Structures are given as C-alpha cells and as structure tokens.
C-alpha cells in the first residue's frame, strides 16, 4: 500500500469514527426535546343504575343539558365513549355533586349548598371493548335529596362548595349568574318541598284600647299629589335567562390524582432538551473531542507524508 493510500485510509477512519460518535449526541438532543404527555380531551358517557347495579332507563349516553327528575338519581356509571384513542397514563376526572336549592329548577335554585360529592378518574381501561357485558364500570354515588335539589355531573375534581382553599371553587348561585361547576356534562333538578323548615306564624298581639279623652295622633304627612316617590334601584343582577352550558368533552387531568404518588415535573409541563446529569452528554462530548483530536493528528500526519 502506498503512502498516499495509507493517508487516505487513516483520514477516512478518523472521519467515520467522528460521525459514529457525534451522531448519538445530536440524536439525543433532538429526541429529548419531544414534549411529554399528549393527552387530549375525551368524551364521557354515563347511565343510571339501581342499588343492584342494573341500568335504569336509557342506556349509555352523552346527552347534556338540564333535566327534571321524577325520582332523584343516586348512582351514575361513567366511562369513555367508544372509538377514542386514549394515551397511556392519561386520566380524566369525572365528579358527581348533590346540592340543596331554593327551588325545583335552575331558575328558582337560588344559592346552592353542597351536600355530597364523589370523584373517579377514567383512563384507557374505561374504554368499551368487545366483551362489555362482563365489564364493571366506575360508579359515582351521592346522597338522594329529600327536598329541592340539583345534581351535577361534571368533568373535573374541584369541589364547588364556596370554599377558598386548594381544590375548592364557588358554589352555584343563579341570581348572581355563578354557573359552576365548570366542565358541566349534565344536571338534574327536582324536589317537592323546601329544604328550610317553615317558621310557625307568631300570634298577632291584641290592639291596646284607646282612651276616649286622649287626642288622636295627627295623620302622617303625605307628599303632594303632583310628587311621586322614585322607585328603589335594585343592585341584584337579573337572573340568567338560560341554563348553564354543558358538554360531554372532558379535559385531561393536569396532575396526578390525590391517591397516586406525587407527579414528576415532566408529568405536568413539557420537558426541555435534557442537559442535566441524567443525560450522558458529558461522556458523549468527551468521546467526540477525543476522536476529533485523533482525526486532526491523522490529517496532520497525512500532510507531512505528502510533503516528504
């Protein structure tokens, strides 16, 4: 083999080694910039079941809106609608809340008071399959109201009871147009009596006898006939003219459910390219530097051979 052939071979070997070592570094940088998660909004279905778990009334549905109950619903089964693709680890909170109200429908509900609440988390295991007859679906159960009430099915795990702490939200209040819960899937109203016991009427005190000799009180002054008292200005917002909007599409959970271990940072935010100690960047960069040095030495030796 001539000197020129040996020099070309040495240069080719050095270049090949450099490419082989540097490629994983570039590939690792590109792959680590891929966002984690990928959970999308999912559609929820529900149905009512009795104490024995048998369906009551219509089967699975995603129908929203407000409904009047003839018998207050107590247990609701929930699942994800068929035909969807759910990513691994994606969770969808669904809650059922029961409130006492001031009237039997949304327009007369007034300020609502939370009585009971339940939450489940749906995932890929809650999608229907080929053998659904033997499946057990997740259930939500709340107390059955015995007076005016409203039951809300909604797609998050916030408790809308008027509390100000973490995990709590404003209670529904129709006169002030507080249309919670958010992500409302469907709602039911009903009841045939007030939740507040009526106070007995107090007896009217007897009129005191008047003394004939005592002068009668002067009549109360009246405004002139051409003057009228201006009407009082109401500061209460007018009641809403429609029920709150509903949708069966539920957003994914942004953090791990309370019963699971604490989430890692990558569970809630898209990760950046890995540049910390967990990625072997230092080792790869060191190897690449060594190969570059060897390649430079080989090229230098080749030039010296040509000159000689």
Can you characterise this structure?
Strands 1, 2, 4, 7 and 12 form a 5-stranded antiparallel sheet that branches. Strands 3-11-8-5-6 form a 5-stranded mixed sheet, with no helix packed on it. Strands 9-10 form a two-stranded parallel sheet. It has 308 residues and is α+β, with helices and mostly antiparallel strands. Residues 2-36, 227-237, 259-294 and 296-300 have low confidence and may be disordered. The chain has 2 domains: 1-29 and 284-308; 45-196 and 240-249, no CATH class. The protein has helices at 3-31, 265-268, 281-307, and strands at 42-49, 55-61, 66-68, 75-80, 92-100, 113-122, 138-141, 149-154, 159-160, 168-169, 184-190, 249-250.
Estimated share of beta-strand residues: 15-25%
Low-confidence stretches: 2-36, 227-237, 259-294, 296-300
Helix coverage percent = 10-25%
Which class of secondary structure composition applies to the elements?
alpha+beta
Q: Distance between the terminal alpha carbons, to the nearest Å? A: 17 Å
Oligomer: single chain
Tally of domains: 2
The succession of helices and strands, N to C, reads: HEEEEEEEEEEEEHH
What is the β-strand count? 12
Tell the overall outline.
globular
Mean pLDDT: 72
Per DSSP, the total helix count is 3
Give Rg in angstroms.
36 Å
What can be said about the biggest beta sheet?
A: 5 strands, antiparallel
